[in-house]
Amino acid sequence: MGVTVVGAGVVGLLSAWQLRREGHAVTMIAPEIARDASYAAAGMLAPISEVQYGQDRLYPLMTAARAEYPAFLATLDAAVDAPTGWRENGTILLAADRSDRDAVADLVAVQQAHGMAVEPLTSGQLRRREPALAPGISKGWDVPSDHQVDPRMLASCALAALEGPLDPARFPDAGPPARRVEARVTSIGGPDAEGSHTLTLDDGTQRTAQKVLLVPGLGCADIAGLPARAPLDLRPVHGDVLRLRVRPGQLLPGEDHVLGATVRAKVAGRNVYLVPRADGGLVIGASSREDGMPGTHAGSVQELLDDAVAVLPAVKEMELEEITTRARPGTPDDIPYLGRLEGAPDVVISTGYSRHGILLAPLAARLAAALLSDDGEAALSAADRQMLAYMSPTRSLTAPEMTPTGL
């Protein structure tokens, strides 16, 4: 069965790969590959350190997705010889001063009460783990199961797996290499009497599709015929991300980086993360703006650098390679939309992943493929069905809470 995937961020690419593995003939329509929110993303797989108060519905999604990551990446490893940036380097939570310590400790207490693996670190343990951290750090906690991927590497790897030949011994059920159309979908119509949908592209041409997966991020509002049928409450949440590189003179003999674990810190009440890459890169972020400015915000960049230096003084001597600003598709409850388009059972919407898109991508891919497969939904577990209910595009944001399975 053919499936047209509209959008090519990490969620779209991994969904397309899942569909191909399950035997579908995939056509991807997108003007570019992973150039929107995915391009800026740091790639933290952090269901514990990302969780916040009141996220009863989001936390089960994040933990389920994190558990699926190793097996999902193994399918890519079996398909192509390309890196994904997967690193099991853990995460350390830090508080810069006493007020920050109290704020982080309160959240850690809630996390621990719900069985999350978060352990306090003594000053000595923290210094031995990460000797380059600022000496005045107030408190640290170890989150050993929060890891990372490199979204840019992951996107390239997934694209290679989608478009290349596959070993039939390893992928006996796989569909043909995916086709790619470099265009933007401007409208969707149907279904007609035969169940087909018509996609109009920005060059005026039209394509017919039997099954459609819509993964256009914030672009949902720009697809005519969609907003009225799926009035999704999406808003742009901008983030500014810095990419730096450790200079050789900053390293001691035998070192390849000044930082081992991913660091998530609270500094003067603000959040900052530092994600070390295996090649000596360092990704710094955590800014979140809803001011409508699509360009880079100078104040956010200053705060990110100030806060990063307060945590890791070596940042001040690194080379600043790149500043990237992108808008993420946010929802009122921070939970994505994933489900069938009302009145069109062969059209599935998958968007609104906000800052969790990289983490949730394997879960989103599996569930979307199940909804688009003739018998896939029947195989879904009770937990899968509850997660789909949480993410339903028609959910009521004021409805009573479902039975919580997390925070």
UniProtKB/TrEMBL annotation:
Query: What name is this protein filed under?
Result: glycine oxidase
Please provide an example of a Pfam family that matches this protein in its UniProt record.
DAO
* Keywords recorded for this protein, A-Z: Oxidoreductase, Thiamine biosynthesis
- Which chemical reaction does it catalyze? glycine + O2 + H2O = glyoxylate + H2O2 + NH4(+)
According to its UniProt entry, this protein's organism is Nesterenkonia xinjiangensis
Please list the residue ranges annotated as the FAD dependent oxidoreductase domain. 3-371
What are the record's GO terms for cellular component? cytoplasm
Which InterPro entries does this entry report, sorted A to Z?
Answer: FAD-dep_OxRdtase, FAD/NAD-bd_sf, Gly_oxidase_ThiO
Q: Supply the Gene3D superfamilies for this chain.
A: D-Amino Acid Oxidase, subunit A, domain 2, FAD/NAD(P)-binding domain
Record GO terms (molecular function): flavin adenine dinucleotide binding; glycine oxidase activity
Q: What is its EC number?
A: 1.4.3.19
What biological-process terms (Gene Ontology) are attached?
A: thiamine biosynthetic process; thiamine diphosphate biosynthetic process
Pathway listed for it is: Cofactor biosynthesis; thiamine diphosphate biosynthesis
